[in-house]
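Ticket #307: bound-state structure for iron/sulfur cluster.
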Amino acid sequence: MMEHLTRELETLGFQARIVSARRLADLGCALDEQRGQGLFDEAFFQDELTGFGFTLPENVPETGSLVVMGFPDPNVRFTFTRCGESIPVTVPATYLHVQEKDKRAEQALTALLAPEGYSVVEARVPKKLLAVRSGLARYGRNNVTYAGGMGSFYRLVAYFSDLPCESDEWGEPRALERCEDCLACVRACPTGAIDPARFLLRAERCITFWNEQPKEVPFPEWLDRSWHNCLVGCLHCQRVCPESREVNDFCETGGEFSDEETGLLLEGRKAGDLPSDLVEKLERADLLAALDTFPRNLGVLLKQPRS
Ligand code: SF4
Ligand code: SF4
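RESOLUTION: The complex was predicted; output attached.
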């Protein structure tokens, strides 16, 4: 059944690995261990790594399964306009329309398991770690994960199921072989967040950490304005990675925002104070949740000198 399920998911566009539900405890221990070793900045840990659950759902026995699935997810390029100039602005993979995408993944898994009498429950686990330990993905030096054929432009989801798991693959976290003699991301990272001497990123130096902060948090002084390259997130290290070469152009076109609309967004107005057609456009683009960070995140991109 496990093999059949993995194959069926693959035909639907999902790469999947199935491990024992008991691996949940290993994931919790690994996170504690890394924190104990001081590998996480505390602010980063509190922001990013405290929302997990390491208790099995009631209807999932220890003999059940933990299913991790990855599927291609494109970057999205929007166009904003300033003083008549069209300025492309990218939102990297995994930020937009995530609920719909995750729902489709859950529905696909449920459609395969429910007829066999098995349930599917969302798993709030460290998915990158699960993907790497189950063999679905490998870490890059930049701590981004890469999965076969999709480079780093894919999204991960994870689910528990009472589907029995008799055997699984579970290894130590592994880096890409090509990282051994490559430093492209280290050189491309403007902030020095990627330390070739240690496995984990210096997350508090990463642009993503800062532009994902609430609007009240200003960018630190050391973060040079010219380093910003996305509305949220950062793609410097992924764009140069040879592992993603084949999929580097995997990008969809988002909406266009006129000079007037861009100006309103930079003013930091709330949705209720914006024209309804602009709110609809933001909703369609799934940018409404980012509205309050536009003055900071978009502002810094639009103020960059252009060539
Ligand atoms: S750019 Fe090179 S070192 Fe960095 S993750 Fe990619 S292969 Fe590894
Ligand atoms: S996302 Fe940007 S800041 Fe973070 S490690 Fe990569 S290049 Fe550096």
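RESOLUTION NOTES: DSSP finds eleven helices and nine strands in the chain.
TICKET STATUS: resolved
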